[in-house]
Amino acid sequence: MASCSGVCEEVPEADIAEGGDYEVSISSNDLDLFQRSNPSTVTGGKAGISSTSSVHELLECPVCTNSMYPPIYQCPNGHTLCASCKLRVHYHCPSCRHELGNIRCLALEKVAESLELPCRYNDLGCSEIFPYYTKLKHEQLCRFRPYNCPYAGFECPVTGDIPTLVAHLKNGHKVDMHEGCTFNHRYVKSNPYDVENATWMLTVFNCFGQYFCLHFEAFLLGTAPVYMAFLRYMGEESDAKNYSYSLEVGGGSRKLTWQGVPRSIRDGHRKVRDSHDGLIVTRNIALFFSSGNRQELKLRVTGRICKEPLN
Ligand SMILES: [Zn+2]
Ligand SMILES: [Zn+2]
Ligand SMILES: [Zn+2]
Ligand SMILES: [Zn+2]
């Protein structure tokens, strides 16, 4: 075997196999992975690390950087990793390549139990502190957690707080922005007899210092083609209840009105649509409103957002 004099940066694979148990035999690839997932090991640590946050770092899976929850596993050399990474690395320790058994790291699990940590959305305004194991549950429902982009039509991966999403809707999706709490929109559909799904451009309203999204779509309700308009509130469900809205659509001496409560954008656009929580107009009625024009459907929707709950 070649002797290793001076600086020895890489141990050839064959030497590892022959030499048996090397304490640290990280291949350069693994080292890359390790350093990428642990930037602090490269830069020499963040400034001002308290003892709690260094324990927190111990509880961070070195592979995926998520917080580890029981069962926490370790290799025979003591390297820890989370349960889902254990499956992903095919039962070999990513740090030392030793085969992973089913060795739990009970000490670390116990340490976790004794910890109290701030919500991960601390930077976004949540000041709550939780025992380690209830932290995750809280974070799934924390009112400061980022919202998903409310734009419908395709799954947009953007998340953020409300001001971020309003800017994103304006600049990224080029939605119609509207100041004020009343509106009067005309939706046009050529070939109304086509039954395909259609989504019109989202309108975002700024009123009462809040933001609301008005959706308008065509789809099949069972076998019946319908048009649906509904409003979503850019904020929490509990705050959405403080508002109400009305929609009116008509023409040809007929009129349909809807009074409802805006739904929080925490509820996906599809969920609201599928719950029929809005103004639904069947195509036949829509054609009456459009004065029987069969080439082009024109629906005038007027509405108002109110800062008072419906009684
Ligand atoms: Zn992991
Ligand atoms: Zn290991
Ligand atoms: Zn929180
Ligand atoms: Zn988006």
Automatic annotation (TrEMBL):
EC top class, as a word: transferase
RING-type domain segment(s): 61-97
Domain SIAH-type, chain residue ranges per copy: 114-174
InterPro entries linked: 7-in-absentia-prot_TRAF-dom, E3_ubiquitin-ligase_SINA, Sina-like_RING, TRAF-like, Znf_RING, Znf_RING/FYVE/PHD, Znf_SIAH
Cellular component annotations (GO), alphabetically ordered: cytoplasm
UniProt keyword terms in alphabetical order: Metal-binding, Transferase, Ubl conjugation pathway, Zinc, Zinc-finger
Domain of life of the source: Eukaryota
Gene3D superfamilies: Apoptosis, Tumor Necrosis Factor Receptor Associated Protein 2, Chain A, Zinc/RING finger domain, C3HC4 (zinc finger)
GO BP field: protein ubiquitination; ubiquitin-dependent protein catabolic process
UniProt KW NAD keyword: no
Catalytic activity field: S-ubiquitinyl-[E2 ubiquitin-conjugating enzyme]-L-cysteine + [acceptor protein]-L-lysine = [E2 ubiquitin-conjugating enzyme]-L-cysteine + N(6)-ubiquitinyl-[acceptor protein]-L-lysine
GO molecular function, one term: zinc ion binding
Keyword Manganese among record annotations: no
EC code: 2.3.2.27
Pathway(s) served: Protein modification; protein ubiquitination
Family, similarity comment: Belongs to the SINA (Seven in absentia) family.
Record protein name field: RING-type E3 ubiquitin transferase
Protein source organism: Colocasia esculenta
